[in-house]
Design a protein that fits this description.
Spectrin_repeat; Spectrin/alpha-actinin; rod-shaped; UTRO protein; about 0% strand; mainly alpha; coiled coil; Methane Monooxygenase Hydroxylase, Chain G, domain 1
Amino acid sequence: EKAVNLKKDLAEMQEWMTQAEEEYLEKDFEYKSPEELENAVEEMKRAKEDVLQKEVRVKILKDNIKMLAAKVPSSGQDLVTELNVVLENYQLLCNRIRGKCHTLEEVWSCWIELLQYLDLETAWLNNLEEKVQMTGNVPDKLDAVNDALESLESVLRHPADNRTQIRELGQTLIDGGILDDIISEKLEAFNARYEELSHLAVSRQITLEQHLQTMRETDHMLQVLQENLTDLDRQLTSYLTDRIDAFQMPQEAQ
């Protein structure tokens, strides 16, 4: 009777593992929304806990069968053979569910990381847009134009590392068919805005550089002219002091 009960327990255990495999490992999941992905992660966590909780039952079953086999070798040997199959299947099921749970957790982590990088770069784009707008109406003064140019250039020196991470993380998820529509839409919107603002910023930078160069050249010309006028004024003052007749002066002084 004990052998019959143990055989029944083995059959029930095998049936449970078959159901767990069908439910957690053989279903085709399509993760088209973050909610679906998050639910799948939580489901696999519960599956892993559920499977691992059966470890105690498997150990008890194993000990009982070995005890029976030691006492009644004739009836226990067949049970040992069935037990070995169940143990092998159980270990395989544990490994596969652990693996899938780890994979889904990595995918979810990848998605969260992508969102974080997008938030960082979006904040930078907002800052860049603000700088472009601020430098569109700069007072026509040398210091003001120079400050505006330096301010814009400091924002444009933003490293490209975050954008590289966004591209790689997004492509990894899209290649896996995970959230591909949502990610493609987000990346398309981000890249379009990045290209537009970068183009505007570089164009504004060139305009400010040219304007600054023109103002510096004009300022230099005015300085030279002022120096010449000062020299001429000094020379004319000297002539007047010496009461020299205008017709006695050089042509340029006249």
